[in-house]
Amino acid sequence: MNNRQKAGLIAALVTALAGPGVSQAAINVDRTRIIMSSDAKAVSVGLSNESRDQPYLAQSWVEDSQGKATNVLIALPPLQRIDAGKKSRVRIMRVQNSGAAPLPADRESLFYFNVREIPPTPEDKSKNILQLATQSQLKLFLRPATLAAEGSAAPEQKMEILLSGRTLTLK
Fold it and tell me: What span, in angstroms and rounded, lies between the C-alpha atoms of 115 and 130?
């Protein structure tokens, strides 16, 4: 094998390994991030089972920004069965009087919402089967009510269009 063939083989291998991985998770979440206002009691997140023939368990919980369990927010139900092709919801609720340190009022607080799929056990236990379970982790921002009020005005309504002669100016 000459140097040109080796270089081509290495380039093909690096390209194959560096490409994005494709995931086939059975339990999917309906969004990529969650923003919850601090004056809201709860926010609802949709889960769907994309499997055509198997039910899955969905385990959900909330962690703080350091990856530790938090007592500020709770995901209910923490464990649920979702039948094949069906949808369900998880409510993320704020715990009142949690005993935790007060959250900052001048900026958002970062949490993580986790959903782990638990596959069903195989019916034929005489065969060796490798089962993979995926876990999704979404950023959850707890936004203080003071920030929510400031950002509630739609930016497109603040925009001004000025026409002077043949010049159009956007502000």
Answer: 21
- From first CA to last CA, the distance across the chain in angstroms is 63
Cα separations in angstroms, 136 against 3, 5, 39, 80, 165: 43, 40, 26, 16, 54
The Cβ of residue 79 has, within 10 Å, a number of other Cβ atoms equal to 12
**Distance separating alpha carbons of residues 59 and 116, to the nearest angstrom:** 5
Domains with residue ranges and CATH for the chain? 22-122+130-148 (2.60.40.10)
Regarding beta strands 79-82 and 73-76, do their DSSP bridges make them parallel or antiparallel, or are they unpaired? unpaired
The alpha-helical segments, DSSP class H, found in the chain are: 3-18, 145-150, 155-158
pLDDT digits (tens, 9 = 90+) for 20-43: 555 567 999 999 999 999 889 999
